[in-house]
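Before a colleague's protein record goes any further, I have to sign it off. What it holds is a sequence and that sequence's fold in token form. My question to you is simply how this chain folds and whether the tokens agree. Thanks in advance; the entry in question is below:
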Amino acid sequence: PMEHPTREEVIVYLYRYHGSPEVTSDSLNGFADADAVSEHAQKAMAWAAEEELLFIENGNLRPTDPVTRAELASMLVRFYEKFLERHPEITAATTIQERYDIYNKEFFQE
């Protein structure tokens, strides 16, 4: 893509990848720019704020700002540490496909 994804777009990807979990609170109320979050990204951004996946600057989410490499790396590390690192079977898997299969089995059991 020619354009960098926005902060909310990355969070929507991670939220959906994690199975679109229930959001237990209205976590966007305390942010000055909460009204700038797109309607389709509301739950994802609330989830990210609740899970502390975002770097918050001066009480602003900055949802429509392009995500920087540093921010993306930070989001991915936080996601990994919060959801994957606690599962040694995922980190021990040798291929990406194995990790994907274990992750899906772990988090999406019915």
Notes: The first helix runs from residue 7 to 17. The chain has a mean pLDDT of 84.
